[in-house]
Amino acid sequence: MAVGAGAALGVVALLARYAPELDALLLAPPSPSERSELGPPAARSAGPAAPASSTHAPATDAGQGEAAAPATGSPPGAAPVLRSVSPQAAAVATLVDPFAADPVARAACPADMTLVEGDFCPSLPYVCTRSGDGAGHGCPEYGRGARCRAPVDHRRFCVDRHEWPNRVGELPRVYVDWYEAKALCASIGRRLCRRSEWMLACEGPKRLPYPWGFVRTPSPCNIDRAAIEFDIDAMVDEATREGEIARLWQADPIGSHPNCISAYGAYDLSGNVDEWTDNLADDPGTARPATLNGGYWGPVRNTCRLTTGGHGPTFKFYQVGFRCCADTVDGVVTPPPRPFIERDREKDGVYD
Question: CA triplet 46, 225, 15: central angle to 5 degrees?
Answer without folding.
Answer: 65
